[in-house]
UniProtKB/TrEMBL annotation:
Coiled coil: none annotated. This is SMTL1 protein. It comes from Anhinga anhinga (Anhinga). Belongs to the smoothelin family. It holds the Pfam family CH. Keywords: Coiled coil, Phosphoprotein. It comes from the Eukaryota. Residues 16-122 form the Calponin-homology (CH) domain. PROSITE patterns: CH.
Amino acid sequence: AATGPAPHLKRTGGAATVKAMLLEWCRARTRGYEHVDVQNFSGSWGSGLAFCALLHSFFPDAFDYGSLEPSARRHNLALAFATAEERAGCAPLLEVDDMVRLPVPDAKCVYTYLQELYRCLVAKGLVKTKKR
């Protein structure tokens, strides 16, 4: 897995700015996906579809997004985390059981996972960052 701060998300302005940039990146990558409306790092990710949409935007051949159901949380989360690990080399920092057990995902855990996913995608050259 990639290490260090996420390139291009590291800007002056502190953690709030990085969070806002990461949230906007997730929102932009998942725009247009059915049943996905990324507004935060907690409830927006509960069904697993936002994770699936984000990964599908990079790996459209990995699975058929159109066949996914919002109510199949366990399946969606398992699919997303497996795809992230296999295709992006992203460490499995979130557990499907933990995510399903909570009515609303923990924002800090989701944020940490998305930072790691972003770093892995940058390391694979799938996300272009601006040179300083």
